[in-house]
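Is magnesium ion placement plausible here? Inputs below.
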Amino acid sequence: MTDREVALLAAKQFNTGDVTYLEPYGNGHINATWLAIHKSADGKDTKNLMQRISTVAFKKPYELMENICGVTRFLSDKVPADGTLTVIPTLDGKDVYCDEWDNYWRVYKFIENATAYDKIENDKDFQTCGVAFGEFQQMLADYPAEKLHETIVNFHNTPSRFADFKAALAKDTAGRAKDVQDEINFVLAREAKADAITSKLASGEIPWRVTHNDTKLNNILIDDATGEAKCVIDLDTVMPGAVAYDFGDCIRFGASTAAEDETDLSKVSVDMHLFEVFAKAYLSVANKFLTAAEKDSLVTGAYLMTLECGVRFLTDYLNGDVYFKIHRENHNLDRCHTQFKLVADMEDKEAQMRAIVNAI
Ligand code: ADP
Ligand code: GN1
Ligand code: MG
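Reply from A.M.:
I modeled the complex. Tokens:
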């Protein structure tokens, strides 16, 4: 059976009516995403977003969906309609459908008239993003964190990511280590910096909060008419974390002058104007609740999220591309290179970034 045929069988298990259209959708690196159009009994077409949850990333899909249902129910009291994801149940009232091949499927209501951007097109989009993720953290401040499952253990524990990298290097499953000695040395030279946030969380110097943990630009839907944020999506990694993780990942992806997989590295750097736009927008909300130590950790977060992401791409490259979806040969290595270029650039611009944050 083709992927589409398997997906079609799954789409029929949800309480949505007949499936009249089903095609792959979006640019996520983790789940397999499909746009489905269903025809309801009264003949109306409805768009839905169906996903096969990646079980390489998420080992416990039922726990994952418990998190998503809890968080979206909680947020739905605080945001307008379509301001958070809506889970569509299966015909027998479940949040997730497991097919005979152990694929786990879920369906969300499709949020219309909004776009997930892969690149910043104007300052306003990044400002929108900063405000939206600040508000997202603020809204979840009183979410009962003890109810959240850790959907990916040690997700942003950078020392643990370094350990995974070293294990992959030792195994060298795909036989690629010999080709990436410079990249390996780049990582090993920075190992001492890896615990800059985890050590502060452990000592209590910065607090654990409920954070999104995957705040790249295409995980927020921006309203086509107003340019305002419509909905924060991709809630798979909402877990206790440090605010600097969310701030940092936004900068990593959104303040770069080039795409995450750009192959011409001369195009890749941190755009300090975009950095400032984002920092101002995020802090216009977050300054109200951040501690001084958290504010001080934001630039470290940008640095570590970028280093960590580069390390994860390199690790996946060494493992033979098993975690992130790739669309061409060496895709993970290309992604690793942009991240390391940004890391080096951030090392040069650290003082400048700190001055910008301190001035806000
Ligand atoms: P991944 O974990 O693979 O990144 P996402 O949940 O981010 O998957 O979804 C991938 C893409 O699908 C998003 O970037 C966005 O373009 C689109 N998308 C996801 N959820 C919705 C939704 N409810 N409505 C409209 N588009 C969506
Ligand atoms: C993945 O799921 P997606 O594509 O929004 C990854 C992030 C990485 C990002 C790099 C669950 O995000 O951690 O930063 O790719 N998500 C997961 O682009 O691993
Ligand atoms: Mg995503």
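Short version: The chain has ten helices and eleven strands.
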